[in-house]
Write a structure and sequence with these properties.
- The chain is mostly beta strands and 296 residues long.
- It has one domain: Distorted Sandwich (Beta-galactosidase, Chain A, domain 5), CATH 2.70.98.
- Helices cover 2% and strands 41% of the residues.
- It contains one helix and 24 strands.
- The strands form six sheets. Strands 7-8-9-10-24-20-19-14-17 form a nine-stranded antiparallel sheet, with no helix packed on it.
Length: 296
Amino acid sequence: MSVYTLQNDQLKLQMDDLGAELTSVLDQKTNKEYLWNADPAYWKRHSPILFPIVGSVKNKTYTYQGKEYTLPQHGFARDAQFICISQSENEIWFRLEATEETLKVYPFLFALEIGYQLIDRSVKCLWKVMNQDTSVMYFSIGGHPAFYCPLDPSHNQNEYYFGFDQKDPLHYILVDNQGFAVNKPFEEQYILDTDQGVCPIDPHMFDHDALIIEHHQCHEVSLLDPSKKPYVTVTFDAPLFGLWSPTGKNAPFICIEPWYGRCDNSDFFGSLEEKAWINSLAAGDIFSTFYTITIA
């Protein structure tokens, strides 16, 4: 494993080639760290890449073209060794390609490139999924960045707030005790009430694991300090996202997770291409997107 650095006079970023994971977002002026430190007492990761699935598949197995495959939660990319393919003063790219081992659990020839671009007080997290196979490829991909909350250890998390670019209440679904989505029609989903897009962080908000917010309801989520001032903002174009902190641990961080895909529904028994929010990519095509983390 090697550690790489990008920095300007505002921020210093660090990332590993193991998982191509962003591991630090440090304010150069205040020496304050914004990204979770991966303390295993709470959660051993910083900002893993979720690929080729997001969440869990039923019984850790799925079927494709009549054959059964096994994948752990969130897939294999977060624990895979990437290769750094380029680095400049403000941008870096890592690459992972299919191997004999990945083909045993995910039957597609792919290349996955993960990039980070530092722009003033923002980091642009870039994804490219390439179908190097001869037929349609099915995949999910997601981000899982964890941010300190509270940012100031003298505060309590329940003094903080979420800020959303959507001013109306948000609809969300939950997962069951096995980690699968309890899907409901939009009009029957749970409601996250906000006051003009601001919602207090309740200590029991994550008692049932992640909140899953679908259907492009929101494209910008901020963590707000006790004065309701945003200190970190995640901006994305993903069709759904998750909000999460470990259940029952009083963990001092919250994840804001842009997703293109999610866990199986609790009543799902179909094949890979029938999964909720699955993406399809034609042979030779490239799926390219990004999300941005901005430090106030």
